[in-house]
Amino acid sequence: MGAGHIAQQSHIPAYLTNPNVKIAGIADPDEAKLEEVKKKFGVEKAFSDYAELLEESLDAVSICVPTRFHSEITVAAASKGLHVLCEKPMALTLDEATEMITACERNRVQLMIGFNYRFIRSHREARKMLREGRIGKPFFIHGQFASMGPYADFEKRHRSFYFDPESGGGVMFDSASHLFDLMRWYLGEVRTVKASHGNHVEGVAVDDVASVSLEFESGCIGALSCMWTQIESWSAMGDEGFIKVIGNEGKIVASLFGPSIRFYGRKSKICKIAGEIELVPKGFDPKRPMDALQRSWRDEVNAFVEAIRTGKGVPVTGYDGKRVLELVLKAYQSARA
What we know:
The radius of gyration is 20 Å and the shape is globular. It is an alpha/beta fold. The protein folds into 2 domains: 110 residues, 3-Layer(aba) Sandwich (Rossmann fold), CATH 3.40.50.720; 186 residues, Dihydrodipicolinate Reductase, domain 2. The strands form 3 sheets. An 8-stranded mixed beta sheet has the order 7-8-9-6-10-11-12-13. A 3-stranded parallel beta sheet has the order 3-4-5, with helices on both faces. A two-stranded parallel ribbon has the order 1-2.
């Protein structure tokens, strides 16, 4: 569902690498995008109305449309007995998120939310190390997301949902949702949120920079910062995306886009000799972070497909998506107040 950027960059290529999947069709009201997908990926059936695609012989759908349509299409797909992988953020309101969860539970289908950053090796390894107590008790976490986002092609995208407040546009909806999910996945539930936001590009109606203070139920204090920039240089901005956790016995810094982490532990023999060390997963090049990001979409889709095939639960549930949405909405409420 949807033939735009996220479908073409992420979902479709990932499904095409999975031997257990056949793409049955695609739906999008933009005829030009449909033709582009048909030629680029060899998708045979294309529909301008998503309801027509739902009449095909399907097992599951990927929802890659603007956020304001997530709930409507998820509920429609669930009523047909179809499993759903829905892009983040889950919905515009908590009521919509609840409707999505209820519809999927009622029809006994899986609902997975597309927080693909959970599948990047740097975050999986950092979370594992935290659970092993490698840095002791965490007392501070800082997550930062800095990218060009929709400013990478502003002339083409300035009329898109990214810049529409009524459609879920804004950096906190679009980008901070990833950080809220990762930080919650790292350290558990968040107790309080305080935020401020603004924008630095003239004529933009949504936030493109934001700062959030967090307090976790564990007592850990957190800071979240996110921004869309107009700086194109990867060498200048490549290290501006990260999640840093400091504990009473060390620290972990995970590259946001992957694949590497930096680690220091007071009890580590290697660290006593070399100081802070960098760990890079085998087969990955830290100078090519987009490879790790692309791999995360493939692993995300594979996990979704495997959950359907085995009947096991998906790794990122509708309840995860709703909790993140709640945090995003509280951040906006705090910023307005």
